[in-house]
Specification:
It is built from 13 helices and ten strands. The protein is of the alpha/beta class. The chain is globular, with a radius of gyration of 21 Å.
Length: 303
């Protein structure tokens, strides 16, 4: 499912004077992509997400789905929401069932999935986000932790497997194990040619799963390009007020300390697993030096 946004404008009229939340926003999303949408708080990211899901209608501009202009009729919006699933930044806003099973299964019932298939889909969806189904079925979703509520909201969309999954700050409040579950879920969707728009401040996650990044600032797209090239550039990160990923900082420190001119060609990209494997192939002296660099970087991050 391809999405094309052209010169989208939107103002919140209940604010005096009206605030331009989106201003001439244009970009396209292609089937099978994982695209990050980043930017300062208040830049319009969540507002844009709600337009892509049909919850907000633009003041001007257009959205095309597979080349067809979205007309904003009730039928078109229903079809759009079936194909574009959105998990809010504050997931408790979309929780309304009394137990986890009913909450996760709700969309499946709404979209007519056969009842005999729903329990299995709910179980698989919860497993995909790292939650043990039997332990959660009867629990009240509003009494879970913030991180668990977020995972429940993601699972509730996985049961219907939308073409696009829009995740607004999906790793907020998660421990590392569940952070990995979200990362792996995104990677699995990409392998299956499913699409993800990731709205996040988690640049470490962006570097691992999103080849492309959009930077939104004051309602305008300021950057649309390669995530790696943006996040390794200190100047670009400063320009867009982004914190560089921890693994990039470590990568640069190791590269400057360990790599001589002849070895630069085989030094890996800033990926933790590749860096670890590269270090394992070095001499004992270099491995010990790498440990010193790692400890130094860790101490810097704690200051």
């Amino acid at each position: 499912m391809n999405i094309q946004v052209d010169k989208l404008c939107f103002r919140y009229n209940q604010i005096e004077p009206p605030v331009p939340a989106l201003d001439q926003v244009s970009f396209s999303l292609q089937t099978g992509e994982c695209v990050a949408l980043v930017g300062p708080s208040g830049s319009g990211k969540s507002t844009l997400a709600q337009h892509l899901n049909g919850l907000l209608k633009p003041d001007s501009g257009s959205i095309r789905i597979d080349g067809k202009l979205l007309g904003w009729s009730a039928r078109e919006l229903r079809d759009l929401r079936r194909r574009v699933g959105l998990v809010f930044q504050f997931p408790e806003a979309q929780i309304f069932e009394a137990d986890v099973f009913s909450e996760v299964a709700f969309a499946a019932y709404q979209w007519g999935i056969p009842r005999e298939e729903i329990r299995g889909k709910v179980e698989r969806a919860l497993h995909s986000v790292g939650l043990e189904a039997e332990s959660f079925y009867d629990r009240n979703p509003l009494k879970l932790s913030g991180g668990e509520t977020r995972l429940i909201s993601i699972a509730s969309l996985l049961v219907v497997d939308p073409d696009w999954l829009i995740l607004d700050e999906p790793t907020l409040g998660l421990d590392f194990a569940h952070w990995q579950c979200v990362r792996d879920l995104i990677l699995q969707r990409l392998k299956a040619s499913r699409s993800v728009l990731l709205i996040t401040h988690d640049v470490n996650l962006v570097l691992q799963v999103c080849p492309r990044i959009l930077v939104l600032d004051q309602g305008r797209i300021k950057y649309d390009g390669d995530s790696f090239q943006l996040l390794i550039s200190n100047d670009l990160c400063e320009t867009f007020d982004l914190i560089r990923p921890d693994v990039v900082k470590l990568w640069e420190a190791l590269k400057s300390s360990l790599v001589n001119g002849a070895d630069r060609a085989d030094f890996p990209e800033p990926d933790a697993m590749r860096i670890e494997n590269w270090i394992k192939g070095r001499s004992r002296f270099e491995r010990e030096k790498a440990c010193s660099v790692l400890l130094h970087q860790l101490n810097k991050s704690l200051i």
